[in-house]
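In keeping with the milestone schedule agreed at the kick-off meeting, the structural modelling team has produced records for the first pair of proteins. Each record is given below as a sequence line and a structure-token line. The laboratory manager (R.T.) confirmed that both were archived under the project's standard naming scheme.
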Amino acid sequence: MEWKTQNEDQQARALTAAIVGEQARDIMREVLDDETLDDATRDALAGKMAEHPTDPARALLEHFLSARLPQFAQQESTQPVA
């Protein structure tokens, strides 16, 4: 097993976060560009994007959770997502 230095591990995590963030942005752009999407869903996703402008993966996750779990939508967005 190859051991990474702490700096290499931090760099790998930062790169992974950047890639996941860009993928989340791409997904959100595609969804928002969908002409069949209803206005309420579009507004909800845009709202999550506005709440978490520097963390698109969290915005997308919260959007999915609120769509899937109505009780999540009622929670404060300041609570950590597990």
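The second protein of the pair:
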Amino acid sequence: MHDPTTTAEIARLRERIDAVDTRLAELLEQRALLAARVQRLKPVGYFAGRDADREHGLVRRMAEHAPRLGADRLAAIMNRVITAGLSAAREEADRGR
């Protein structure tokens, strides 16, 4: 079992992680809303309109700010973020029809 100091430190760090996760969720929601607006404006949108060059550039820029994760891990994360956002935008558009 951990000593009380370690247990308290773990609790403090987990509170900070929870706060970051909340901010991350809010940012992901903002990103999804912005991406949905872009998709409505593009002549070819949603999954057919993905721009691989733009996505690679995005990952490179993000890797500069998150070197611990690196480009490969960030590419996997952002692929899921983009896919989820496009899926949500498509569902929203289908409901609006």
